Amino acid sequence: MKRLIALLMAAVLALGLTACGGEKETAEQVTVRYGLSNAWDSLMPYNSPSGSNYTRIVCDKIYDRLAYVHADGTLDPRGAKSWESTDDGMAVLFHLDEKAAFHDGTPVTAQHWADTIALITNPDCPALGRGTFSVLAGTDSNGCAVAGEQLGAEAVDEYTLKLTFKSAITPEDFLLDKNRELYVLPTHLLADTEPADIMELDLWDAPVGSGPCKFVEEIPGSQLVLDINKDYQLGCPDFDQLVVTVIDKSNLLSSLISGDLDYYAFGGNLSMDDAETAKAGGIEVLEGEVPNTFYELMLNCETIPSAEVRRAIDLALDKEALCLQSTHGLGEPTATDVTPGTEYTCSLTWQRDVEGAKTLLEQGGYDGRTYTLACTSNRSGLAALMQQELAEVGMNVTIETVDSAALFSGMADGKYDMAIASHTPGALPLWFTESRLSESNNIFHIADLEPYTYYIDQIKSSSGWETRQVMLDKLQELLADQRPFIPLWFGRTLHAQSPTVDNIDYPSSSFSNENIWAWRMKEA
Amino acid sequence: MEEKRLGRSPWDRFRADRRAMVCLYILCLEILAVLLLPPLLGLEPNASDLEAGFWAPPSAQHPLGTDDVGRDLLARLLSGGQVSLFIGLSSAAISTALGVPLGLLAGYRRGAWEFWIMRLADIFQTFPSIVLVLCLVTVVGPSATNIVLVLGLLGWTGIARLVYGNTLAVREREYVLAAKGLGARTGTILRRNVLPNVISPVWCSIPLRAGRAILSESSLSFLGFGIRAPQASWGSMIQYASNLTVLTARPWVWLPPGLCIILTVLCLAGIGDGLRDALDPRFDGRRS
Q1: Are A503 and A393 members of one domain?
Q2: Which residue, A176, A281, A357, A491, could crosslink A315 as a Cys pair with Cβ 3.0–4.6 Å?
Q3: What are phi and psi for residue A35, nearest 5 degrees?
Q4: Does some domain include residue A144?
């Protein structure tokens, strides 16, 4: 009897222990810690004052986009399973994924996409960044819907979205250019709200999207906790939570080495200078193959009105030295914004000519005034080098170190005469010029945009590659003659590989999208 | 022994303090070096040597190497020393110039003067100083002059409190009451009778305050709110150490300015200690 009781007790104990173990296993959450060097400024993708990549990469997790753009310019399905050109290239049909659903369980339909576009282009809605939609029929140059005109976004059926454009465009070109600005909103939750009040909703403090991650909580400007959306149409990773933490840029690599981070955006970017440190810390380093940064010196054409003076600045700069200082050998100086390695080319070459610059300064009537050069703090060395090179030709420059938002707003307000900026280059011929040489974003303060917009319109309306290339050459010649901005170099980067997470598409992170649904934890 | 010590002047007593004298000599040498060496050696702190390259290690041509833009680090160390010492000493002078009269007025006049000056000091002291300095520097813009003004204007409270406390004790002394009885004006009493008897601890605190200002400038520069590029300061030079590669592989970049800051602050503290001992007639020359 005693033996029987002992056996029974042992069995109960074993069962109890097994149950405890099981509970512990299911309760354990696997978290991926994600570093970001700057904070997002809004969780409402159409309400970001900076429109920065930091906001885009965060919104990329919560909201869905039509496609996934690879660094080499190829596209994969995301919110849309496929797409096709129609109406002689004037429209594109997007066949949406029927499995896509918002985090509250509501299926994502073409009506959601059409309603999102209708809402954001509504002039009463205080949306930011709606210039993206200015390519659609029925909108003005600012992306606002024009009263009485049919908006070029309609739901053909439940899962087919039709976008109609002002001029012919291929679906690939449209997606390469605009995909990162296009998110679908939960318009079923916005039905009772006036467009003017949309940005005031509490919904944006705890947003509901249809992306690969669900919002859990946020410490604004510091931390964002997201749960993995296990029902995401493209699959889900084998971890449960993503914690995005803002960490100073200089600490990202050390945090990765010490194990405080599993990955950092964008694509574990690493300078050549830090590669040895990363390797010594046990981090694998891969070299990027496509240019992922384009540096430019923005000029204020209102305070530097003479094209000769602007060309003199171009000639005074030693782009080779500047590029070397910044990229440590992973970049190529350039005389154009046309991205190398794409199907479009530009025959312009750069050169440094100190004497030529001095002559141009004289011709341009430079009066010895001191210009203000704005830059972010991590580029103060670069600015100092430029300052020396400009001093060599007799131009005085003072450096103002400001944050990125202040830099762009200062340029837009005309506060600064020059500013150093970098961008993620695109494969399209107008990836840079179209958005910056427009009335709505005349950041270079060009008095007469017409000559530029003429060529831009010609390039956009050209159907064949050859005609486009001819027009692009003419636009580049005009830019070289007027120099409203100075192209500096295209840079590549190194990628610090995550020691804990596999399957990350590092290079595509530069395009503000990440294949988080495919990430897998490495075996310990 | 006691009589002998009391008979000596403060300067004699300071000179007798070997540690304070060593600190004074080092600080004087440092000041002479940062002022004289750049013109004597023809050093140019803002010129890049692209042939030497970026981040070049120490060599005969560049004894401390070059920075991220190819600028000579020795030249920048000396030029940065001028800025850091200027900020430290000038802001301490401004704090003293403000703190002493306010402390005297509050302690001697009492009443509304005491209430408003000391409550103002309380308000200033309730804010975390680095946050307040950061905010003000952001508003007025980062430059050596602005940093001196901000640090100087915010640093008066400590000195004012020191003078205020001592004035409260001195204002009841017989010689002050006698001067008052003889009809001396308040300004005269403060200048002739009160100030000489409360100023000793202020002299001791000036070097310490200068050291603290150098550290504050270093913190501001480290956080990216310091002086404007391309000007150098010791603080902005150690900012390079925030990069892991520089911290681990290029000690020649951040070690010299770091050591200069430590040495200067230690010397200023040593001089402050020496002044305290020299100006205190009751101090018997032995340290605890």
Answers
A1: no
A2: A357
A3: -100, 145
A4: yes
Domain CATH number, residue A227: 3.40.190.10
Kindly report the nearest CA distance between residue B88 and chain A, in angstroms.
23
What are the structure tokens assigned to B155, written together? 């640093």
A-contacting residues in B 132-151 (Cβ below 8 Å):
142
B222 CB-contact burial (10 Å; exposed 0-12 / middle 13-18 / buried 19+): middle
Domain shared by A225 and A106, yes or no: no
Q: Report if pTM > 0.90.
A: no
Q: Chain A window 289-318: which residues touch B at a Cβ cutoff of 8 Å?
A: 318
Query: Is the domain of A305 the same as that of A422?
Result: yes
- Asked if residue A200 is part of any domain, the answer here is no
Tell if the CB–CB gap between B244 and A254 is shorter than 8 Å.
Answer: yes
List the single residue in A with minimal CA-CA distance to B223. A377
Based on the domain organization, do A369 and A429 belong to the same domain? yes
Which residue range is the domain that position A86 belongs to? 64-187
Asked if residue A362 and residue A223 are part of one domain, the reply reads no
Q: Domain containing A366 — which CATH number?
A: 3.10.105.10
- DSSP strands (E only) in A288-363: 293-299, 331-333
Residue with tokens 């009463």: A124
- Closest partner residue to A377 (CB to CB) among B69, B224, B244 is B224
Q: Name A314's bridge partners.
A: none
HSE-up (13 A, CA, CB side) for residue A120: 30
Tally of domains in chain A: 3
Structural Rg of chain B based on CA atoms: 22
* Whole-angstrom distance, CA of residue A7 vs CA of residue A377: 72
- Helical packing angle, A307-316 and A465-482, nearest 10°: 100
Each of the 524 residues of chain A gets a pLDDT tens digit; together they read 556 555 555 555 554 544 444 433 345 789 999 999 988 989 999 998 877 889 999 999 999 999 999 988 889 999 999 999 999 889 999 999 999 999 999 999 999 999 999 999 999 999 988 888 989 999 998 899 999 999 999 999 999 999 999 988 889 989 988 999 999 999 999 988 999 999 999 999 999 999 999 999 999 889 999 999 999 999 999 999 999 999 988 889 999 999 999 999 999 988 888 898 999 999 999 988 888 899 999 999 999 999 999 999 999 999 999 999 999 889 999 999 999 988 899 999 999 999 999 999 999 999 999 999 999 888 889 999 999 999 999 999 999 888 777 888 899 999 999 999 998 888 889 999 988 888 878 899 999 999 999 999 899 888 788 998 999 999 999 999 999 999 999 999 899 999 999 999 999 998 899 999 999 999 86
